[in-house]
Design brief:
Mean pLDDT: 95
Distance between the termini: 54 Å
Strand content: 15-25%
Radius of gyration: 16 Å
Structural class: alpha+beta
Oligomer: single chain
Helix content: 25-40%
Number of helices: 5
Shape: globular
């Protein structure tokens, strides 16, 4: 089967590209669309480094054939915040030391963003559950959990304004 013309809305922008429908969404994002913030950790859906939101649902992009994402909305780490204005989750990871080597950080931030979109004030247990499937080999998770709690507090404060 040959490449096909495909469309997706990625980070709010309509994108058109050529791809084989069975190519991994991860590879299309990185290689065809130049969005290298999404990382490949294990390539087997076990680590969460490649997490993105597909139509608002957290997925491991290494497991999703791009044909399944056709005409969908995809949010990657590049679509969260901007260099001039970090998202509260990104800011909290920075302030709280929620990342060390950085390999898991994009996926963790996307997962945390997804959690906070659904639950603005999660408990520590809900944070653990929301980040389940995103592995970190450096931090021991406590600073990551603290960063999500800080982001929730920050977002709560912004909502009250």
């Amino acid at each position: 089967m040959s490449s096909q013309r495909m469309t997706m809305t990625v980070n709010g922008v309509a994108r058109v590209f050529e791809a084989h429908p069975m190519e991994r969404l991860l590879d299309v994002l990185r290689e065809k669309l130049g969005l290298t913030g999404t990382k490949e950790g294990c390539g087997e859906g076990e680590c969460g480094a490649c997490s993105v939101l597909l139509n608002g649902e957290l997925v491991n992009s290494c497991l999703v054939p791009v044909g399944q994402a056709m005409n969908s909305r995809v949010l990657t780490i590049e679509g969260i915040g901007s260099p001039g204005k970090l998202d509260p989750v990104q800011e909290a990871f920075l302030v709280c030391g929620g990342s060390q080597c950085g390999m898991c950080t994009p996926g963790m931030i996307v997962a945390a963003k997804c959690l906070l979109m659904r639950n603005q004030q999660p408990s520590r247990e809900e944070i653990r559950e929301g980040l389940n499937g995103n592995l970190c080999r450096c931090t021991g998770y406590m600073r990551i959990f603290g960063a999500v709690e800080t982001a929730a507090q920050q977002q709560g404060g912004e909502a009250a304004k």
